């Protein structure tokens, strides 16, 4: 059904023990679109990402992805259905080489298609140069690139990029954004959680601002002007 969004979240609620971290969060992500999720520290951005990807179980609400209810699905099942969560700087196997990390991310079908690893090296030349280096010895930024490259191996339908640019040198931030642009051009939908609000808004179609675990503002990314940023994020 063309009018059904790829991801649909309704009244999502998450508790950590007795503490309420998300409440009443509803949002849609249409196929091939990009959503920026902004909010101050502790607003619930990473909690949203974890709840969508099955890492924390919601205490209420419903998450549908590609027409299936994934509200209580395990992380692995969510990933196999095409929703990939990239938590900052993680998800690589430190003892394996760059090339081995990429090979492991391929599904059997992906392996048959071939060329996927070479394509990753075209997008991220630095990974190609370091293909035989153990992932654990890469810099933080290089590990984030490898994590993104691994996600793109399985041609996901939706990538949640959680603060991928955190702590990166500006040049590497550009590389990460380029990688996400390419994924998007290939038809992958993206939820971008970003400290650089302006860049995220340039990238995204729509924007959701979280405040104390709830949606405080949502609208077109081009409509999230300085006033919205100042009011909810304390930024100019
Ligand atoms: P930041 O931008 O600082 O990373 P965030 O918007 O991603 O913040 P979350 O990490 O989702 O915020 O945290 C939302 C709230 O839930 C915070 O008040 C945080 O202290 C709390 N919280 C997060 N993880 C846990 C946990 N494992 N146990 C208890 N409370 C938690």
UniProtKB/TrEMBL annotation:
Residues annotated as domain ABC transporter: 7-236
A molecular function (GO) term: ATP binding
Keyword Signal: no
UniProt signal peptide: none
Keywords: Amino-acid transport, ATP-binding, Nucleotide-binding, Transport
Domain of life: Bacteria
Key word Glycosyltransferase present: no
Coiled coil: none
Protein name: ABC transporter ATP-binding protein
């Amino acid at each position: 059904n063309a009018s059904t969004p790829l991801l649909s979240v309704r009244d999502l609620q998450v508790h950590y023990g007795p503490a309420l971290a998300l409440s009443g969060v509803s949002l849609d992500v249409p196929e091939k679109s990009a959503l920026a999720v902004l909010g101050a520290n502790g607003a619930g951005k990473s909690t949203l990402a974890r709840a969508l990807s099955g890492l924390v179980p919601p205490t209420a609400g419903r998450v549908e992805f590609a027409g299936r209810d994934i509200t209580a699905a395990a992380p692995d099942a969510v990933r196999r259905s095409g929703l990939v969560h990239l938590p900052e700087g993680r998800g690589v196997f430190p003892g394996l080489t760059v090339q081995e990390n990429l090979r492991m991310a391929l599904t059997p079908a992906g392996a048959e298609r071939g060329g996927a690893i070479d394509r990753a090296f075209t997008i991220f030349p630095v990974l190609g140069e370091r293909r035989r280096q153990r992932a654990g010895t890469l810099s933080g930024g290089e590990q984030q690139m490898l994590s993104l490259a691994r996600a793109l191996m399985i041609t996901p339908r939706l990538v949640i990029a959680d603060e991928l640019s955190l702590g990166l040198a500006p040049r590497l931030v550009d590389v990460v954004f380029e990688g996400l642009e390419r994924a998007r051009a290939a038809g992958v939908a993206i939820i971008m959680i970003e400290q650089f609000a302006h860049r995220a808004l340039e990238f995204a179609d729509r924007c959701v601002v979280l405040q104390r675990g709830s949606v405080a503002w949502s609208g077109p990314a081009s409509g999230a002007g300085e006033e919205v940023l100042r009011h909810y994020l304390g930024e100019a």
